[in-house]
Specification:
The protein is an alpha/beta fold. Strands 20, 21, 22, 23, 24, 25 and 26 form a seven-stranded mixed sheet that branches. Strands 10-9-8-13-12-11 form a six-stranded antiparallel sheet. Strands 15-14-19-18-17-16 form a six-stranded antiparallel sheet. Bound molecules: adenosine-5'-diphosphate.
């Protein structure tokens, strides 16, 4: 009873203080059937310092138990062992079995003193012998119970705060007695009474896991374990359990254990581990070198990218290398370290690092000082920007190349313009000259002038063409045309040249080749002219034959093959490929053939950009075959085209109409005037030297059509046209205006249409083209 003394030593005042805060603490249950004895207890109590206590008297054990079962709490139960419904030691056993936490003070008769001692051993707090206890000993015994209760309450509170519960399991009774906190941890309502093992199993109560721990423990040993448990509602919690086993009476075992809810800690730990893993992953997988080193440059921690950047092994880097010796050049390194120490952090500092192989890499370094009691160093991110820098250089070089291409293009365009203008004069004047009275010699001289200027014009056109091909500026038409007409025309024109050399020229159209097809007629013509022209040029004896055959029908389209066969000088086998390159010509020992070496290259580009293939086979000295294939839509895919313009569509020669020629170049004025007057004798032609003069004249006079040069001083052709379209009365504003320009580009970029011109005539003009265009627009 050593432990008890401690409580008995507490002063009454202390006890009173504590009592006032706990209401259930002054309630006492008296189970006593003898009214005299019951009365005596009340009198003794009233005499003692516990007079404030409230006594509830029940005469049978059943009545007492019923009250307790209803959940009423009492500081102590005064239990008479001899009752109408029970007697002797069994009375106590029955109460303890149901309510082991209660403070039971057993009341025995003098003769039953032994029973009292046994009762204390079996779980009663104390015993009082009827007739021999007085007010003081009753109060002392009750006070102890009250205080014990208080301690238990505090323990419970402590358990709740600490999230720790305790339990006991008696194999003798197969009952589990657990503190409120244990129940709370498992999410179950607390039970004051011990629970039977079988009942718990049957209810599938989460507490049953406690029995599993017990299986791991033998007498005298202790088991500790972290467990994941499921609460009644399914919520998962983490707990720590510790359990030990001791031998009780009759060899039965008593298991005792504690359980602690460690969910918060566990989750925090798991979160920490996860976040650590994540950062670790970023660290290891980063393509930037990430490392920590001391202020002296000793590597402490680094990732794979660091090893890759510097080229050393892990051991070499951590044991032999110093980060600061790998930075380069020395001045940059010093500046970097000074700035870092000074500012504590540095961002995107450009520096080079030396790889183990000696190779220098251009890098960007970002660093932050890490200062703590036991470490002076910095963390560092190094990004290798060598490739980035190279790409930047490449981009600049490409930009430069693009600019120079643009310049070249502009140069070619302006040169060709400059060449076309005077050629227009030569061509036009020789044309006029030819229609005057000339003797045979003069006529042949004028023809030579005309032919030469035509060749020169062809060269200028080729140069312009190749420059736009190389800049991918070609847009292909897709219009219906008559293939047979095209081929007949080709032969008609080329016949003249072939006959000059006494060559036989014919076209052979294979079975199934459709007449009406859709595609770029002009480009096809251009390629055929080029190939047939070459064949005639390089053949002195024999023939030139043009074969057209059908390769495949593809839905509404057809794949056609064109082959031009000649019996000319042929091409050496090793040159067959290169002749399609720009400016490639095969030099002949004894002869000079005119040409620029551009024709085949242009043809190849035109065919390939339309999805076709071009090639050649040849036997040196025997002849060559040039061939290409192209896909065209067939007649089934489109409506028949308008009939081709015949000479009947031209204005009759005696038509009288008013034409305003806007042109600053004297020579060109003359060529145009003479050409037009030769065709239409009754034409009334007026001249304006620039756009402004043209507008002034239009204000005063009426005209049927305007031929408008584009490049002119004071006001150019575009401006003048726009002014006319926007500012003149409606009938005049709609006047047909034809652009006249030496810019071959105009036809491709359609700028004349954006400027509201109706059409264009290219200088130097083909008279027929000029006549046709005028006839088309003049409405008389
Ligand atoms: P050009 O005819 O203006 O020189 P091309 O690109 O059309 O330029 O032709 C390139 C070269 O290919 C010619 O200079 C010539 O050496 C060779 N070649 C082209 N066609 C024939 C052919 N039918 N027979 C022999 N050689 C040819």
């Amino acid at each position: 009873m050593k432990e008890l003394d401690h409580y008995h030593d507490l002063t009454t005042a202390d006890a009173m203080d504590n009592l006032s805060s706990l209401t259930s603490m002054n309630k006492i249950l008296l189970i006593e059937d003898n009214p005299g004895d019951a009365r005596l207890v009340e009198i003794f109590l009233a005499e003692s310092d516990l007079q404030h206590c409230e006594v509830t008297n029940k005469a049978t054990l059943a009545a007492g138990l019923e009250l307790l079962e209803r959940g009423e709490e009492f500081a102590a139960v005064l239990l008479d062992l001899t009752l109408p419904d029970t007697r002797g030691f069994e009375t106590l056993e029955r109460l303890v079995a149901r309510f082991p936490q209660n403070n039971i003070i057993v009341l025995t008769g003098l003769a039953d003193k032994e029973l009292g001692v046994r009762a204390v051993k079996a779980g009663a707090q104390d015993f009082l012998i009827k007739g021999s206890f007085d007010s003081e000993s009753l109060a002392k015994s009750l006070r102890y119970s009250i205080e014990r209760n208080q301690v238990l309450k505090r323990l419970e509170e402590t358990q709740r705060i600490a999230n720790i519960g305790n339990w006991e399991y008696h194999t003798a009774t197969r009952t589990l007695n657990a503190s409120d906190e244990v129940y709370r941890i498992f999410g179950c309502p607390p039970k004051k009474m011990p629970a039977l093992k079988e009942a718990l199993i049957q209810q599938a109560c989460p507490l049953v896991v406690l029995f599993e721990i017990q299986e791991l423990v033998t007498v005298g040993s202790v088991a500790k374990k972290d467990l994941k448990i499921r609460q009644k509602d399914g919520t998962q919690r983490y707990v720590f359990v510790q359990c030990s086993a001791n031998k009780g009476e009759n060899g039965h075992i008593i298991f005792q254990g504690i359980i602690q809810d460690i969910t918060e800690r566990k989750l925090a730990e798991q979160g920490m581990i996860k976040s650590q893993e994540r950062y670790q992953e970023i660290f290891t997988q980063s393509r930037d070198a990430l490392f920590i080193c001391t202020l002296e440059g000793q590597f402490i921690d680094f990732n794979q990218a660091t090893l890759d950047l510097f080229g050393y092994t892990e051991k070499e880097l951590s044991e032999q290398q110093n980060a600061h010796q790998l930075y380069h050049p020395a001045e940059r390194k010093n500046e970097f370290l000074l700035k870092l120490k000074d500012l504590q952090a540095i961002k995107d500092y450009e520096i080079s690092v030396v790889h183990k192989s000696g190779e220098m890499r251009e890098c960007m370094i970002t660093a932050n000082i890490l200062a703590s009691e036991d470490f002076d160093g910095y963390n560092c991110t190094i990004r290798d920007i060598t490739e980035l820098k190279q790409a930047e250089k490449l981009r600049k070089a490409q930009e430069l190349a693009r600019q120079s291409t643009q310049m070249k293009e502009r140069f070619v365009a302006s040169i060709s313009h400059e060449m076309r203008t005077p050629m227009n004069a030569i061509f036009g004047m020789s044309n006029i000259l030819m229609h005057t009275d000339l003797d045979t010699e003069q006529l042949s001289l004028v023809r030579s002038i005309q032919q030469s200027s035509q060749i020169l014009l062809g060269v200028v056109n080729d140069i312009l063409e190749i420059s736009s091909i190389q800049n991918n500026k070609i847009i292909f038409e897709n219009e219906p045309f008559d293939l047979y007409d095209l081929l007949n025309n080709l032969v008609e024109v080329m016949q003249y040249k072939a006959q000059e050399k006494d060559l036989y020229l014919e076209v052979i159209i294979g079975p199934g080749v459709p007449r009406m097809i859709k595609g770029d007629k002009l480009r096809l013509n251009q390629v055929l002219y080029n190939l047939v022209g070459n064949s005639i040029k390089f053949t002195d004896l024999g023939y030139v034959k043009i074969f057209v055959s059908k390769l495949h029908d593809i839905g509404d389209s057809v794949q056609l093959k064109f082959a031009i066969e000649d019996t000319g000088i042929g091409i050496p086998a090793d040159k067959i490929e290169v002749i399609f390159d720009t400016f490639t010509r095969i030099l002949q020992k004894d002869r000079v053939f005119e040409g620029t070496g551009l024709g085949l290259s242009i043809s190849k580009n035109l065919i390939e950009q339309q999805g076709g293939k071009i090639g050649a086979t040849s036997i040196l000295g025997k002849g060559s075959i040039f061939f290409f294939d192209l896909i065209f839509e067939t007649a089934a895919a489109f409506a028949p085209s308008a009939p081709p313009v015949s000479s009947a569509a031209l204005l009759p020669d005696d038509t009288s109409f008013r034409l305003l020629l806007v042109e600053d170049h004297k020579m060109n004025q003359l060529v145009a005037r003479k050409t037009l007057e030769q065709k239409w004798k009754n034409i009334r032609l007026s001249l304006a030297e620039n756009g402004q003069i043209a507008i002034d004249m239009l204000n005063k006079e009426d005209f049927d059509i305007v031929l408008m040069d584009i490049q002119m001083p004071i006001m150019d052709g575009y401006e003048a046209t726009q002014y006319i379209r926007q500012n003149f009365p409606p009938d005049k504003a709609k006047l047909p205006i034809l652009a006249m320009t030496a810019h071959a580009q105009i036809a491709k970029d359609e700028k004349f249409r954006e400027c509201d011109m109706d059409d264009f005539v290219l200088k130097p003009f083909e008279p027929d083209d000029l006549f046709y265009k005028i006839s088309k627009y003049v409405k008389i």
